Amino acid sequence: MKVLILGVNGFIGSHLSQRIIKDTTWEVYGMDLGVDKLGWVLDHDRFHFVEGDISINKEWIEYHIKKCDVVLPLVAIATPKSYIENPLGVFELDFEENLRVIRQCVRYKKRVIFPSTSEVYGMCSDPSFDEYKSNLILGPINKQRWIYSCSKQLMDRVIWAYGSRGELDFTLMRPFNWIGPRLDSIETAKEGSSRVVTQFIASLVYKEPIILVDGGKQSRSFTYIDDGIDAIMKIIENEGGRATGQIFNLGNPANNCTIKDLAYRLLDMFKNHPKHKNDDRYSEIRVQDAKTFYGDSYQDIYTRVPSIDEAKEILGWEPKTGLDDALRLTLDAFLEEAG
Ligand code: UGA
């Protein structure tokens, strides 16, 4: 099998490439702006990398869509701070650039696995989100945070519509707060634009305050990257066509915890870490309101728990990594990288 991964050097792309090369005989063709997350896989003879930008290197992409069996368009801006600072950039990259790829998958009859997002459920108040029953609830237009959710939702609907006309073999997957080594970077966290786990780890490393937005009572169901990759592998394998035309929430409901709880767990792990247990001081935990932290056009999501019945029944997938193990593995990897 030939797998095309656009955004191959991202958090999901890099882990997925390593798994494919390690566990299968498939070929991976990948494009990205850089290579810093790819590691050993770059030198493998079944891994074919080209440095490029999906908005520029269009011919390479079209040629490889024709050549490959399955396409994973993973290029996206996916950090809440950028939804507010660069909403049009989010729309242009996450929707417009990816739409061209989807249309080429239709034209060349290629299977596409599209990364939707837990964010499409928005402020849905269901105790757990169901792919086919939950409403997708977004705030007003002046709350620009929702442009990401809305762009992803529209793409889900476009893909679904092509699929319902029998013109596209697709799967929509919805990661729920996947965490692990290489999630964003400590460098982007310095500018305050990483997702929360990396942001908190960077604060611990640099002895800066950990900020709980609005007190940290909002919760997320943190999912370890290796568990997520297990699910994507089953979706790519697509035994008997079982993943075709389906939407899967890919998250770990057992790991649901508040942001405040997350901060205290990470602080505790850091204080007990062999490299840091003798540090002379540690980050303090502070509270800040969302308007000060993100600006006026932010709105938060207070609860986000996935129903994973579809993935369990259809794919035979279940996450295995508990919250503390997931956090410890993530923390260890970042501390290793920080030296
Ligand atoms: C994320 C991102 O939109 C995407 O990565 C993705 O599509 C999706 O959700 C997902 O990973 O499932 P969110 O969970 O809100 O959105 O992103 P984080 O930046 O990780 O924030 C999580 C929570 O922590 C938010 O409530 C935020 O207000 C809070 N936070 C964040 C803090 O309290 N302090 C911080 O320093 C950063």
CATH architectural grouping: 3-Layer(aba) Sandwich
Largest sheet: 7 strands, parallel
Task: Provide a count of the helices.
Answer: 12
How many distinct beta strands? Answer: 13
Structural class: alpha/beta
Q: State the name of the first-level CATH class.
A: Alpha Beta
In spatial order, strands of the major sheet run 3-2-1-4-5-6-11
What small molecules accompany the polymer chains?
uridine-5'-diphosphate-glucuronic acid
Shape: globular
How far apart the termini lie comes to: 38 Å
* Amount of helix: 40-55%
In short:
The chain has helices at about 10-25, 60-65, 80-85, 85-105, 145-165, 185-190, 195-205, 225-235, 260-270, 290-295, 310-315, 325-339; strands spanning about 1-5, 25-30, 45-50, 70-75, 110-115, 170-175, 180, 210-215, 220, 225, 245-250, 255-260, 285-290. It is of the alpha/beta class and about 350 residues long.
